[in-house]
Amino acid sequence: MKHNNSIVNDVDKYISGHALDIIREFSGFLSIPNHASSTEDIKRNAVFIKEMFETRGVEIEISELPAAAPFIYGEYKVPDAKRTIFLYAHYDGQPANPSQWNSDPWKPVIRTNTIENGGEVRSLPERGEDIDPDWRIYARSASDDKAPFTAITAALDFIHENNLPITSNLKFIFEGEEEIGSPHLSEYLRLHKDKLQADMLAICDGPVHQSGQPQLYFGARGYAGLDITVYGPNRHLHSGHYGNWAPNPSLLLIHLLASMKDPGGNITIEGFHDEINPLNEEELKIIEQYPDTSDILKKEFGIAQPEGDQNLVERLLLPSCNIRGFNGGAVGKHVQNIIPSSATASIDIRLVKKMDPSRTLDRVEEHIRGQGFHIVREDPDTETRRHHSRIAKIVRHEGYPAVRTKMDSPEAMFIIRAAEQAAGETVALLPTMGASLPLYQFDEVLNVPIVGLPIANYDNNQHGPDENIRIGNLWYGVKLFTALFIGK
Amino acid sequence: MKHNNSIVNDVDKYISGHALDIIREFSGFLSIPNHASSTEDIKRNAVFIKEMFETRGVEIEISELPAAAPFIYGEYKVPDAKRTIFLYAHYDGQPANPSQWNSDPWKPVIRTNTIENGGEVRSLPERGEDIDPDWRIYARSASDDKAPFTAITAALDFIHENNLPITSNLKFIFEGEEEIGSPHLSEYLRLHKDKLQADMLAICDGPVHQSGQPQLYFGARGYAGLDITVYGPNRHLHSGHYGNWAPNPSLLLIHLLASMKDPGGNITIEGFHDEINPLNEEELKIIEQYPDTSDILKKEFGIAQPEGDQNLVERLLLPSCNIRGFNGGAVGKHVQNIIPSSATASIDIRLVKKMDPSRTLDRVEEHIRGQGFHIVREDPDTETRRHHSRIAKIVRHEGYPAVRTKMDSPEAMFIIRAAEQAAGETVALLPTMGASLPLYQFDEVLNVPIVGLPIANYDNNQHGPDENIRIGNLWYGVKLFTALFIGK
Description:
homodimer; alpha/beta; Aminopeptidase; 7-stranded mixed β-sheet; 6-stranded mixed β-sheet; 21 strands
């Protein structure tokens, strides 16, 4: 279904005339490193955002909780508001290792396409020159999650320039430590509960559908994690002198991990799936309508055989248990002929609705204990090592539960209409994102419908090297927020 | 059995008077970085060694093969020589990552004991002050393998100062790329075969017995290795958006490795042990006499349960298959919520006599193929990934076979006598070292008895961080080479 909409055409025209300015401001924003561990960098981002929004008439208030990245609260009040929309985005990013990137993560570059498709770095176009929507901007957080900031401010510029009426009160909350697990969000929301009240919460984060079709999501998987360190000799030993006698911790760890998940990707930890309800009829219907792109993605990512027998959207309604990192002695240039002293695996678990993070971690620990491991919380001393042939240090990342919101409330329907208007077509409705977002913290305090409004292309290399955004997706964001802010 | 020997007492006295000079020269030598990948560093070592030996009357000839580290040949001819002894040592070292060391690997420091035993850094003693033989010198290659250079030159100084007669012609070969697998040693030996002829070869490398008792060894395990890289999606994927659907290469790799060796350390690759002969009666007798320190080592290294049911020396007469490195996504500070694009394990295999390196690697490959993996030699393109759910890139390190020499030849007996004289007690006789040395290259060209004369303490952290030598072991080396050079 194609929508015809003059406002969207007007936004397109506006973008044509102002693309260079939008991209320049966005590049300036992307040039500020934003890993939550660097307080100084984070503060520079906050100052930039404050200026960016105040220029557009949004009142900004920066809250500094002890040891937390600044929370940036914004408010834009209008007379006779029909409702209050609360928008969330985060300005911090994942760490970036420049040696793995094709260009500096903190020096945004335009490429004429993805690197995989031979896209080449090019200069900013001349004013008036056409900008191909398939061009990309490469930089850390280009998609996750700085793009919505620029889409929102460009939407406000368009609305102001055309003297259009904003129909809802707008509230914004910008977080600076989402990528490290939002350790202070709950506290902030509780402290400011009264002023944060709204009719709905729009989460501005995540990618659109893999086909490029715009989408909305109505939930996100929860998160839990653990680091498992297994021990060998109390120092690295020469693998010649002691190989075949001194136990190798990587060998013990791979057998432990192999016992947790079979090669086909089925999690074999007892009780892991106990709380998961089977999908209800409505969910099954939504999944049926949802465009399945498993085959396209397999081709795109070079995957011959995904885990499990279901398609992607079905798999995301189930929990995952992923070895995100494994390190036991070096490979490549730094390889050494040693039996390493320890080996560590880092596991991230994605939870679905009803699973309790803490109980899930307990079950994983129980499994590890069942494999004969003595569980410790600190590195064991030599005496402890002498007495236990299998020791696992477990560091728990307690995480948070999944959230899923109803898809047929008036608030949800209002957002769906705005997205369809901006997209000019039907949007895909995803019952839950695969990724984890701290929605539960909002859910606990605000208790309103929560809908995700992603704008980033799915192939944005989020969290990895060479993160990017497709410029056409940034433009979709401008239209989306315009439609939302002036929607009846 | 304690030997009484006035020469050894004289050497002790000599060391008392000259310890400072010996340690100072040694420290200068240790201050020169020596990883074979740095041509410039390696050349600086060669210049230092040339000077060091020419000062003692050894004629030095440096051979530069194309792209090889310099081979340093030394000759010390005497009238009426009873025999010719050929001595080998290497001057290159393993890579060292300073961030893992307690002191700079290239700035030698004296400690009053091992770091584990609370040894503290101290300054050089005043002249005349006693030097505790339990003090350590910490630096890369302090044991492996720069110690013999200093022990030999100090022995020559003692002999010269006392006008003692050297009874054998001495030939030396010093190699600068042992730690990277001696890629040019065979070529050098073949080219210079005629001038290298000798009655026996003394390999000056490796550690003494774990009890501290001096030992000789009569062979070394061979070596082969392989790097296995297993593939997931063609780029890192976000573990939330794709976790539970995109296959994780670490998961595939751990299952593959788990199929190669059980948690108890038993290698389960078909045919791996096919060429190994059972031990003969003589070997069994030697093993029985050999001091078993498995219990001491278990205590020392904090090991509750070694691999296999036998003691260490028995285990070294069997091949090993060790996961020396495993890397699949980062852990710790650099952890990312991704499904990595690939995971790599580096395996080193220690071979025993009769095992062919290449055939052994073939068997490992056959096993990997049997686990359903499509084997490639280069990183696969997306098209290849689309067609094979399990792909393993295998990089073979062909290595070399094991060597073992007879322990009752006159040449072997001559060396045993010299070692007993230096030690003042019975020395332990080890049929084979666990570690690999390029003895086969000598064996092929020279065909003479090969005996290993180690001087380093066993807890020298060879190849790892905080490598060190116990000063008393350096003094044993001086006595050993003195006894060898003036032995009847």
